[in-house]
Amino acid sequence: MTVLAPAVPAQVAPSRQVAVSVAGVTVVVPCPIWCTDPHAGNYVDLVDLSHNGDAIFLAAPSYRGAVERTLIARVSSRPFSGTPETERPFLVFDPIDDECAQLDSTAALALADQVIAHGHALRAMAASIAG
Ligand SMILES: [Zn+2]
After folding, report:
1. Taking burial as the number of CB atoms within 10 A of a residue's CB, which of 55, 78, 100, 115 is the most buried?
2. Cα 60 to middle of ligand 1, angstroms
3. 25-32 and 15-22 as β-strands: parallel, antiparallel, unpaired?
4. What is the dihedral of CA 15, 21, 22, 27, to 10 degrees?
């Protein structure tokens, strides 16, 4: 069993150690406390390993009473990707349960501000049609 550390030291703490299978070999890697991924699969290469937190979403009413998952977001990182943007935690944002964007903290905070502003506008619009 091999113990490996990610390239970005900030990801090491706070974390726990988890055993993962990479090409049939068990290795131990740090896993951040926000990660809820069971890491149960067999990774082909260590660069494929990703940590994933629980997703949040807005349940939005749709056609004929259906409810759609929108504004889906979760925290992820790929500590052995070799890409600085994904070695550290980033926000995965999927607006309509289709395609994802990877956002750093600055972009994610800007998005959150836009969603809040949209919520205020939506609330004002709803109030404008109140009987
Ligand atoms: Zn993990």
Report:
1. 78
2. 29
3. antiparallel
4. 50
The structure tokens listed for 77 are: 């990182």
Cut 0.90: pTM above it: no
Q: List pLDDT tens digits, range 38-58.
A: 999 999 999 999 999 999 999
Split at pLDDT 50, 70, 90, the class of 14 is confident
Q: What is the DSSP letter of 83?
A: -
| CA of 128 relative to ligand 1 center, distance in Å | 46
Give pLDDT tens digits for 51-83: 999 999 999 999 999 999 999 999 999 999 999
Residue 98 CA to ligand 1 centre (angstroms): 23
